[in-house]
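Researcher: Let's try something more involved. This one mixes different molecule types, so please make sure each is placed in the same coordinate frame as the others.
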Amino acid sequence: MTTDVFTMEIIKDALVAIGEEMFSAVIRTSMSPIIYETTDFAVGVTDAKGNLLGQGNGVTAFLATLDTAVQSVLEHYPAEGDIRPGDVIITNSPYAGGGTHLSDVVIVLPVFYADELIAFTVNKAHWTEVGGAQPGSVSTEATEIYQEGLHFRFLKLYEEGRLNRSLVQLIRDNVRLPDSTIGDMHAGVAAARVGGRRILELVNKYGCGELVSAMDSLLAYGERMTLVEMAKLPHGVYEAADVVEDDGLGNGPFTIKVKVSVNSEKMIADFSGTSCQAPGPVNCSYTGLVTGARCLFKAVTNPDIPANGGCFRPLEVVCPNGTLISACSPAPVSLYYESLIAAIDVMWKALAPVLPHCLSAGHQRSVGATFISGAHPETGDLYVMGEPLVGGWGASLGLDGDNGQFCCGNGETYNIPVELFESRYGLRVEQYAFNMEGGGAGQFRGGRGVITDYRVISDEAFLTYAASRTESRPWSLAGGSEGSTNYAQILRADGRVERFGMCTTVRAEKGELIRLTTANGGGYGSAEARELDAIEQDLLNGYVTPEQARREYGFAR
Amino acid sequence: MTTFRAASDVGGTFTDLVYYSVDEETAACGPVNATKTDTTPPNFERGVINSMRKASLSPADLSFFAHGTTVVINALTEKKGVKTALVTTKGFRDVLEIARGNRPDLFNFNFRKPKPFVERYLRAELDERVGYQGELLRGVDLEPLPKLLDYFRSHQVEAIAVCFLHSYASTENERLVVERIKQLWPEVSVLASHEISREWREYERTNTTVLAAYVHPIANRYIDSLEKQLHASGFRGKAFMMQSNGGIATVQAAKANPIAMVESGPASGIFAAAYLGKVIGEKNLIVLDIGGTTAKCALIEDGEVKVGTDYYIGKTRKNPGYPIQTPVTEIVEIGNGGGSIAWVDKGGKLHVGPQSAGADPGPAAYGKGGEEPTSTDANLALGRIDPNSFVGGEIEPDWGAVDRAFKPLRDRLGIDREALARGVIRIANANMTNALRLVSTNKGYDPRDFALIAFGGGGAMHAVALAEELKVPRVIVPVNSAVFSAWGMLLTDLRRDYLQTRPMPLGPANAPTVTDTFGSMIAQANKDYADEGIAASQITFEYHADMRYQGQEHTVKIALPIRRPEEPFEVDESIARFHDAHEQRYTYRLDTGVQLVNFHLVAVVSVPKPQLLPKPVTGRTLAQTSLPGRKVDFDKHGIHEAAIYDGLALEPGMTFKGPAVVQEPAVTLVVAPKHEVSVDGYGNYHVAISLED
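Model: All components are placed in one shared frame. Result:
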């Protein structure tokens, strides 16, 4: 039948649209700001074998967490009849498929047509609370995963449609904000069910056979589109290494190494030679590493088409167990994203020299997660402010770097407007301005990081801060200069200035200033090659000080 | 004495004029007429005058004239505004460039955000500060201003935007700066943020003010020139400008806040749908307007068109765009229209749009050099469009060109012309279904509770198939559906939206504050209208609020239960309405406290409207309206010998079933088998969708 081509197209588009619909279902039903404001979640659909068909993302860092979760579910329940209609599976295990840190909880819903398993819908979202030693379940000081919260390993939250009430009560009794946590859980189930219903509608409309062949055809399309791009990549072997400075307990630096081999059918990213897992919570699981590798792979192949499992067939990720980016139980993992982002960055660094139109020089490379708590001066209520930070991105061939953007692990993430911020928290923002330290000089200039100043106006406030690139600098390309570093400071009333790369609940008093500085991005090309017009324009705009123009560019008027 | 009331809308290709006569003694209205002339850039006002000439109207005959223009949006998208500077709070000049830091193009690691409209060297800071409760922490230091203005002059600045932190809560510092600038440099165009928006979020408000300043001189010159031409031709009536909120404003008000005209075109069709819905008793409508290049979707609930300030230009899946915090009708627009081009990507996947053949060269069948297949070509190939009355009978379809256009894709996919045409339409319909879902199911509405009203050149062609897909039980195609939006321009009232951010917990203690806040907003509205010679007694008010649960970010807009502003504010009822609206939108309700964030007052002054004229009944039979039948391809419903009706001849009360096609010169209503069409007293078509499969 000639019309089948189009039916196929429409089913394929519908499968991708299910991802988008579940995405808005999560935003609609979630009660946690980190989910509906920071969009720290992902939703997706896989086929019966766990091949990714479509995914809705708010951030890049969940790209390999959905299909691998389903694949691990299938390993945990291998026999026919282990998974039954009406089951819903919950997991947050960092050390298996879908794993990141305990706060990110995966809900998997098998979709049956009659008795046949035809697909899965799955989502993963950052719950505000999963218990553990620190409020918010994120610690810069954990030494074992047991301190980081509740750990679910592929449990059945529903069995044949019946809610496992004991499990729900166990969760409720072990978290600080039970209503919000249980609300997030129901939101995940509701979103998965929306997707499940849509898949059954497609079966009813087009037939089961048509749907399954559309799934296969969608995966093949993803692979085909990717191979078209792979043929254009420069074939060869590219290597890079970089560091994560600190694990939160003062250990480090830790090295991440990669060797990327590219030919027209395959890209192999081999991370052998990376440091062993750390005592502190900067460890990342193998799933996190696969996410990182996929992000970079997608960036250099085809970022335009929606991601599906077929797109990633040509990618192979190699790493021995027990490293910083393939950590094993019971390694603490709260700050896993710093190492994940470093893994993306090191692969980026290996390939950027040969893909200068597609990849920029190094950026701030850190979420720069900052938490400040205290009592609101107006109401006396406890406030906890949590935010990621924007920083400088690197320059690339032909373009200066972007000023003030969230790091590559974020995406549809928004900063908090000063006007909302001040009404919520006992802090006054005194500055939100580009970082005028040096660094990033080049024919094309690295982007500016940002300085944020918070004046404490409550009696006291407590700062928790976790970043990397606190001593190492964003890398440059083609002879440009490296960027600058990320750090937090407290400017004390007596004039002392304290500086931090990672810290937990450091006290600041009323009137003192908390200053957060993010790195300037790396430069591209030698500074001598920068056009005079561009330098003059930079001086006019104040992107470069006269002193920097003289020192970094040899510019004299 | 007979006068005329007219409205004109300047589009990218055509300038539309709609008008009707009014007997000033009896107030009896004549029928609504419409004409189209070419748009005449860069002197758009010439096209307006041309359109009047074509209609044999003299500006001297007009008692009322409303005008919609794309001059603002064009200046923004083509970056052809004036050189603009920004004055902001010390420490925050980079807010405009940092923006919100989001990167929708997730896997692009060579991303650049859109460039701000004011470069850094023209973003200046003054020492001043207001706190979040509107308290003055530091008065503004005006001392550096004279030097700063000299600097701006030396860089040929023509407009200045002033935006300070928390100025939505206290306007004092902004006012002082603007006053001083006007003294020191009377020629420069200067706008303060509080004149444009009183909502919080400093990046959005700053950007809005900057964009307003950027187009301010251009919009003013345009309106001045239009007024001058009209007056020179004897116009003595009142001129009004179309606004993005779906209302009109006096030219005076439009000149003061030009950014409010940014989306003046699309809204009028939506408001026309709401107006028609009220007349025919359909208060819940999904609205679909299919033009040549895009399809626009909106939702009307209980007769209310949704107007919000969460508007962007240039926003795509990959680009964060530029926010504009001005009241705009909520519309989803996608690149799918009659001229949308079908193409196949590198992986062999068929797409339709967003590229469009536009009006020139247009679809291949126009024979004007279009080489790529479009939706219109596909509809023609399937027999849905009558080849004998293509484009109102003005054009003989160029079948050779159609074949040539389809050939490469047919070869690529190995299928015949009809199969390809069906595929193109199916994919176009799937795109539009997704857009319709965005405004309905994705926001918590069940399409089965709505009727689909479809208009624009392609609305009637696709509406029935889309209704089947969405399970909407009824389709309405209004009389004159091809020029329905233009007709809507004559239905718009004078409208001003006042939004004010003033976050507060909503409880009995704050009821007087709510009353007071609306009281001062009403006073402002009365004053603004009085400045234009409109008495307070003519104004009606609607009261809305953006509310949320304590601790949440997103708000939900609700209509407040206020009948008379001086009566005590009903807190409990307001909170109950919020809970209901929140549950509808987000599926749950909480026990948490409720916060009122934005006050939203709508001040409307009704203008006389053309009456909907009943369609005459002559006793003609259905058979007498029928045209020669032809084979029509209804895709999944098969190929049928369809009944063809002359839409202009159909009369109220007539009913018939598909397979059928109703044809008017610029409208084709395609009705698959089983669905039943009836014609109401005004000549609107109602299609009852048979939902059994």
